[in-house]
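Bit of a strange request maybe. I'm writing a small parser for structure token strings and I need a real example to test against, not something I typed by hand. Could someone generate the tokens for this chain?
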Amino acid sequence: MSCCSACGRHACACGCGAIAGTPLPLYNRPGLDSLACRVGTYADFRATMQNDLSDAALPGLAGLRTRESDDPAMALLDAWAVGADVLSFYQERIANEGYLRTAIERRSVRELARLVDYRLRPGVAASVYLAYTVEKDSPPVTIGAGARAQSIPAPGEQMQTFETADPLDARHEWNALQPRLARPQNISLDTIAGLGELWIASIVSNLKPNDRLLFLFGDLATGVQAIRLVQSVEVQQASARSRVVLQPVDPVTVKILAAAQAGIAALTGASGHWLNGLEQLRQQLLLGKDNGGSYIEFIRSFGELEGFGGGPPAAQDFLLAVQQAFADDGSVGTPPASSFSALFGALAAMPTLQPANSFHLQRSLTTALGKASDTRPQLLLNFETHLADTFYRAWTSVPRGEPSPTLSGVYALRVAAPLFGYNAPRIMGLGLNTDGATKAAVPYVSMPDGDWGSVEQDDRVQLDNAYDGVLAGSYLLIQRSGAVPVVAQAKRVQVHPRSDYGISGKTTDIVLVGPVGSDGSAVWQAPDMTAVRSTQAYAQSELLPLAELAITDTVGNVAANDTSTPITQDNATRLTLDSAIDGLKAGRWVIVQGERSDVPGTDAVSAAELVMLSAVEQGVNAQLPGDTVHSTLVFANQGLAYSYRRDSVTVHANVVRATHGETRHEVLGSGNGALSMQAFVLKQSPLTHVSAATVDGVQSTLGVRVNDMAWRETRNLAFVGAADRSFVTATDDSGKTSVVFGDGTHGARLPTGVENITAIYRNGIGTPGNVSAQQISLLATRPLGVKAVINPLRASGGADAETRDQARRNVPLAVLALDRLVSVPDYADFARTFGGVGKAAASKLGNLVQVTIAGAEDAPIDPASDLYRNLLQALQQYGDPSLPLRLDVRELLALTLSAKVGLAPDYAWEAVEPQLRAALLDAFGFERRALAQSVYLSEIVACMQAVRGVAWVDVDALGSIDEATLLAGFGGAGDNGKAGDGASLMTHAAAPVAPATMPPPRVQVLPARYGSDGRLLPAQLAYLPPNIPDTLLLQEATP
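Reply from user aminoacidic:
Good idea to test on real output. This should exercise your parser:
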């Protein structure tokens, strides 16, 4: 062992200068990133040779006593020292390149990896879903697989090309489907009594308080009529409609009418006496007859109920319901107020996982051929092909909502008038004067002598004046005090003079038509002047145009704090469209896009979700008068994860999956049967690899044909026979890919020919393909009829080729799982070596295996991306099929650090700060940190003090920020009322909590676990974000 003569320390650790004693001893402790293998340097070799000139064991050299550099002997020693220095340098480099941990050349790592049959990952192409727009009036368009679309590059980016992965049948009607936004008003015999408002499709209704509205169900002869009074009118100019608030009906009457409706339904087909009695009672109450105020008076007022107590069960149930209606006070409790949901909980929700494609969609024949399924009309059109162009249009335009009887119309009765003669003076005669003071002078005086006899004709109403607006065919309400109102229709109307009852004037003479009583009685009669004087007629009916009601239900998953009463049956897995759409089939992708309604305090958050159709139903709501057929989309699995404001929702149905890369057709060259291992280089690079559910996680897009026959790519030619048409590929450090064929022993040789070797492949790969939403909008391939293209969702899953350092970490993992996932760590090892995955961790929580992943270089991975789907499928395929599996993307923690740095003498802060920042971003960047790896203050200080020029470090603050904490800081205060300032954010995630004047000793980074609300949370990953400089604040310490 050689020691320094000056200090006595080991020669390799001395540092005192040149050592005379080569070769130097070699010692390397475990875990070093580089090996020290040099037996000496130039100075060491020169000093050793000079020392040997004076060695007594070499007497022949004793004559060489000069040590001047210009002496030939010294020059020779110098030349040998230089040669030895060069040799030892490269010997050390070669030795380091022979070990995976110490190799610095990518080729060395690649060759070492091949020893264990590991190939460096070539990268993964991003995947995205494109929504096409078809021209109006264009016939259906088929967009073939491989259709190209390009992105509009942002500053500093390049245009990226994407190609569709599957063919797509597109139609103009499927461009932007709209949810159902309006529905007919639910006005039926079941709802008329409790109806609180009426919407008119006009802003000039001319309705006033106490105006009568006639609701006509069915026709006048066999139907039912109802009268409601106007309370107020609200005009909405923006929507061109009016809201008519109706005067409420007595709650007891509402309950009695509901019981009558139930009784009529139960007695349908039974004896006519009971059914007719309930129908007459219902009609009288709907026209405004009073309920008597008590059960006894009610029974007395309605003779139709005679014998109901001993009648059939339905009649007895009606009487019991009436008793309960009068006994009930009608009080209703107030529902509790909804609580304010956390903003982060809404924003952090992930879209639901959909089937990988239509082949993985779980379906049943019962559902496919269900009553409401769109398969039935499609089968019908398959039998009657000549109806294909007209059936759906005709079917969807026919009203099919048919409650019995159907609402025929709502009429405003514009004129309220008494009958002619209502103000006629009574008949006067002479009678004895009974006044003692005057009877002597005036024995007879004028006094009433009875009333006029009625001369009114049956079914003929004559009003007190001329009303030109009353027309034949119009409806009128004849209401007499103490009697049941009568609704009738004018058969003829005439305005003429009349003289009767001692008066003269014009009258509106209305001849009535209408139902005749069972005894043949007239519709209306005035047997005496009391009837004439107490009758009021409401005439001049005008049909009111009814407006459709806006449907305000949210689309998608109903938020927990949403306490509104839904109007439709839509939910997370169902969405009713505004019309009937034909041709949509199960297994088709659609994208639902709109503004979210489940984010508290704002509706400015837009989102889009990819879902697959599991069924399409065609149906109508039979309870809505005049309703037409509408399509309902049924989504697969859990459907939509978010809630959307209905009027903002658009459903893109011309959707197809696309991947990054552009197809190339290329002639590689000519085959020569005399040559072995012929190789050809692809002219375009990099070669595209798409995500796949394989062990490597990728699949090449390269296809090679020789003499128009397909040759297959294999992993290693050593495993193929002499006649096998196989080839291998090799990619160099510049990304160029070579195609290598066999030698006749391992793989067939190429047959001789001229330009007989062709290739079809795609080029383009990596993170440049992770473009933002709405960025792909250029049609490179424009089929006839296609107008535009867009990506409502961002592209994700793209990852660059595996770097040297990534491969160094991954190669040992490849021999751990060996494509069989037995233990829990095997899941993490397998996922880590999957193409496009940068980090992975697995843990067993209960009977569940939870796997957390992060994309290569922390590239985004969406649940809808090919990378996520294929990894999940591969884990299930190679793992235990009976073990539940959960795959999540990492939870990010952004490290925050503030420190003062003292400099050594003669160092400038401007030179040290960039080096210090680079050292911290490298040591605490994404590549150097692991999932669930906590960050310690000591390692931060050690990293900073290892930078040249740093004398001392004073860390002021250390912590991390997660998404929940960051979002809680918006708006000035969180739920706990504390200000969301920077100081609270900086220390929020620090654990354990340290005194305010001291930074915490560590930032705890958690593994996968169950949250306080029971949700399964993924593992956390903490690192310094390089794109946000303000998370790393470095300042020079000043005196």
